[in-house]
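Appendix C: a fully annotated inverse folding record. The material below is reproduced so that readers can follow the format used throughout the book. The structure is listed first as tokens, followed by the designed sequence.
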């Protein structure tokens, strides 16, 4: 594998075929994801079956209730702007953080690339934590945040809320990340009332998503992009998209599958 690291996060991996990934390469990729947050694999020729098999190397697959499954591949879902009269909306978030043990990894493979726009943006949540004012870091120590689901119709028994530490020690890297999601899904910070929660979440979210803490990925045919939900936020930029933007997405439990919920402080 040829690895090129980027700033403020991310890495590009070349000279690897994900359809025939060597067993010894999986732990190295787990370490790279934990260190860099996002890994871009360029020039891949994966169909959905091979993409699913690749994801299973990183744990049990997770499907989000309410998403549109890929025909014939129920563990994957479709992300598409085709047939929409208005552009989709996306804000920086963590996938399925309302689960008690959220999926460690999300990956997208390209199906159709627009001729213009459609980048995906990622934030470095290690850096977000490390660049906090010391007094604010001290204030956050030991606090938890209740994450809730929004915009999805759930069935009885589906998870809808979970409590996670605001300062999360990553189970692979050992580094501390600021762990929050889009403000609409941040219900309550321990010890604070609703207004205090809203104000602090807005402050932390704005800090995390500052332009100098964001990496933009411009998609190319054959790209597979995978990220570690424990140390990045992500969003799709749907502004100014020209042409079809179609991705197939999968999520895997990763390190949570080994009995670690991945959220220990």
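Designed amino acids, in order:
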């Amino acid at each position: 594998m040829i690895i090129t690291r980027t700033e403020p996060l991310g890495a590009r991996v070349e000279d690897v075929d994900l359809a025939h990934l060597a067993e010894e390469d999986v732990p190295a990729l787990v370490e790279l994801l934990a260190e860099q947050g996002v890994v871009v694999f360029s020039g891949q020729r994966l169909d959905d079956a091979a993409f699913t098999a690749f994801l299973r190397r990183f744990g049990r697959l997770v499907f989000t209730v309410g998403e549109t499954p890929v025909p014939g591949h129920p563990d994957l879902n479709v992300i598409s702007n085709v047939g929409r009269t208005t552009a989709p909306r996306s804000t920086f978030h963590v996938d399925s953080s309302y689960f008690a043990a959220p999926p460690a990894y999300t990956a997208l493979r390209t199906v159709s690339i627009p001729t213009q726009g459609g980048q995906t943006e990622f934030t470095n949540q290690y850096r977000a934590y490390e660049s906090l004012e010391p007094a604010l870091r001290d204030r956050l120590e030991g606090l938890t945040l209740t994450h809730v689901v929004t915009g999805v119709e759930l069935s009885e028994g589906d998870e809808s809320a979970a409590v996670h530490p605001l300062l999360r020690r990553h189970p692979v890297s050992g580094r501390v990340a600021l762990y929050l999601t889009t403000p609409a899904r941040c219900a309550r910070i321990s010890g604070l009332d609703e207004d205090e929660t809203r104000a602090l979440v807005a402050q932390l979210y704005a800090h995390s998503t500052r332009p100098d803490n964001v990496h933009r990925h411009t998609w190319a045919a054959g790209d597979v992009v995978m990220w570690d939900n424990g140390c990045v936020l992500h969003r799709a930029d749907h502004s100014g998209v020209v042409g079809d933007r179609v991705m197939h997405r999968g999520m895997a439990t990763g390190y949570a599958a080994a009995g670690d919920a991945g959220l220990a402080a």
